[in-house]
Design the sequence.
């Protein structure tokens, strides 16, 4: 082993123990929940937008970010 890695057998065992300990400790730490940014739309406005995108988009085609952004600018003043 030492010819390939440059570590003795005991050195490799120490590395493995340290790695396993650090991984175990890291897995016990609580994860941070990234809830993202608060929505700029009120619940009522989100429901209205949801209903809107369930209908056909203007000028045919599908709803996309540009069309939704245009609607928000027009109707909501964004």
Sequence:
């Amino acid at each position: 082993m030492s010819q390939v890695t440059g570590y003795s057998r005991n050195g490799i065992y120490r590395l493995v123990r340290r790695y396993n300990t650090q991984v175990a400790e890291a897995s016990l730490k609580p994860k941070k929940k990234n809830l993202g940014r608060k929505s700029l739309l009120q619940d009522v406005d989100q429901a209205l937008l949801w209903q809107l995108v369930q209908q056909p988009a203007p000028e045919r085609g599908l709803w996309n970010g540009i069309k939704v952004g245009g609607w928000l600018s027009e109707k909501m003043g964004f």
Summary: The mean pLDDT is 84. Residues 9-28 form the longest helix (20 residues). DSSP finds four helices and no strands in the chain. Helices lie at 2-5, 9-28, 43-53, 65-76.
